[in-house]
Amino acid sequence: MNCNRCAEPAVMHAAYSGAHLCEAHFLESVEKRVRRRVRRDDLVPRSATPDNPQKWLIGLSGGKDSVVLTQILYETFHEDPRIELICLTIHEGIEGYRDKSLDACIELTDDLDLTHEMLSYEDEFDVRMDQVVEDDPENMAACAYCGVFRRDLLSNYAEDIDADLLLTGHNLDDEAQTALMNFLEGDVSQIAKHFDASLGPLSERRSSEAFVPRAKPLRDVPEKEVALYAHLRDLPAHITECPHSSEAYRGEIQQLLYGLEENHPGTRHSILSGYEELAGIVAERYDADGDDPDLRECTECGSTTTREICRKCSLLESIQAV
Ligand code: SF4
Ligand SMILES: [Zn+2]
Ligand SMILES: [Zn+2]
């Protein structure tokens, strides 16, 4: 089968759009989707000028998603004096896993000459995920601890360096899963929060001064296409799965979505676009009701939280009590 746009052989077929694309046209189509998302989410505000550049912090794990995001953002903005890109890698303390992906991060940022920082749970919190999993004081999945710690480091670092935006490599599959999980859990306030935190166009979000806004410009690209992009461009992405990966419910939803997508191509796209529209309406409604949670400073670490002690500090307390 040849490419729909030229006479070259196709390297991929997207059932959801019917497109067959050659390598060059496939790469271009991924890049176009990311740039279109950057525009639609208003990520570059008018106030950004060469004298007042925007500082964008990219959460770079070394996996295919964040590597592809970094590469495309670099190619889009490295000659644009309005945008400054900085990469941050979080080391969770997972033997034989994060060390390899850290190598991928270093290779990529060296190649692109991007500023790269690394923070570890060990240095920041005096914990390693391997040990947390073994002790498991709260009887939870590894990712439930790990996600809290990662979010804390990413958002605190973003605040420390005065970043304007925190970007992560969530792809279409990730976001369609989250959307479906929020629906199935019936958690409408979570849907509103999701919109304000990382989904809606920046100009439409209820902005909270307390948090650096997040963005996910890769969320129109299916996971398989992100992987193919990384492979075709020979990007230094590390693809082994984390040995503690254990989000059982997410795994179930992922399988469900694979099946639906197979029989009804386009399902992930329609879930996410419908969800985003609804989430925007819900966020506005919550705003109009003035239903804002009381934000305060954690008495232990000073992070912004709705409780007296933030979730990270209470998890650290129970880990240290083991
Ligand atoms: S899969 Fe879970 S435990 Fe492993 S790095 Fe990701 S969040 Fe942490
Ligand atoms: Zn072509
Ligand atoms: Zn705290």
Determine the CATH topology of the largest domain. Rossmann fold
Please describe the biggest sheet, giving its number of strands, its sense, and whether it closes into a barrel: 5 strands, parallel
Q: Got a strand count?
A: 9
Rg calculated over all Cα atoms: 20 Å
CATH superfamily of the largest domain: HUPs
Estimate percent helicity. Answer: 40-55%
C-alpha end-to-end distance: 60 Å
Give the helix/strand class.
Answer: alpha/beta
> Strand content of the residues, in percent?
5-15%
Give me the CATH architecture of the largest domain, please: 3-Layer(aba) Sandwich
Number of helices: 12
Poorly predicted spans: none
Short description:
By secondary structure, the chain is α/β, with parallel strands linked by helices.
What does this 3D model show about the protein?
With 322 residues, the chain is of the alpha/beta class. The protein folds into two domains: 38-291, 3-Layer(aba) Sandwich (Rossmann fold), CATH 3.40.50; 297-322, no CATH class. 50% of the residues lie in helices and 11% in strands. The protein has twelve helices and nine strands. It has helices at residues 23-40, 64-77, 98-112, 121-125, 129-135, 142-160, 172-185, 188-199, 223-232, 248-263, 267-288, 311-320, and strands at residues 12-14, 19-21, 54-59, 83-91, 115-120, 165-167, 214-215, 296-297, 304-305. The chain has a five-stranded parallel sheet, sandwiched between helices. Strands 1-2 form a two-stranded antiparallel ribbon. The protein has a two-stranded antiparallel ribbon with strand order 8-9. Helix 1 (23-40) packs across helix 9 (223-232), helix 2 (64-77) crosses helix 9 (223-232) and helix 8 (188-199) crosses helix 11. The longest helix has 22 residues, at 267-288. The radius of gyration is 20 Å and the shape is globular. The structure holds iron/sulfur cluster and zinc ion (2 copies). Residues 92, 129, 142-143, 146-147, 242, 244-245 line the site of iron/sulfur cluster.
